[in-house]
Amino acid sequence: MAPSAIDVHSGVANDGIDPIILSLRKTLTTELNPLAYRFRALFSLKHLACLDPPTEQTIPAIKAIAAGFSSPSALLKHELAYCLGQTRNAA
Asked: pTM of the entire structure?
């Protein structure tokens, strides 16, 4: 992400998505990353998606998890589905 894409005052990307979520999403969806890194990103996103009460990070985190379904890895897809179920969010 270009430095200009982040509002230096709030630390949030100009499109309103937290840069941490964007970074985790990139790690999760980059096929060149080892599965261990991708799983760590997934579980970090799951933590954000499961916060109670929900925050402004909840839906972007869920969408970031869902983006991982483009991976050819059946193991990763299984964990993605499990983590989405754990969120208990209808999104």
From this structure: 0.80
pLDDT digit string, tens, across residues 8-62: 444 545 467 899 999 999 999 999 999 999 999 999 999 999 988 888 999 999 9
Q: Tell the residue number behind the tokens 């890194």, with chain if given.
A: 37
In the chain, domain spans: 25-87
Q: Which residues partner with 13 through β-bridges?
A: 6
In 18-35, which positions are buried (b, 16+ CB within 10 angstroms) versus exposed (e)? bebbbebbebbbeeeeee
Cβ atoms of 76 and 68 within 8 Å: the answer is yes
On whether the CB atoms of residues 67 and 31 are closer than 8 A, the answer is no
Residues β-bridged to residue 6: 13
Q: 40: Cβ–Cβ under 8 A, 6 or more apart, which residues? A: 27
| CB of 69 closer than 8 Å to CB of 59 | no
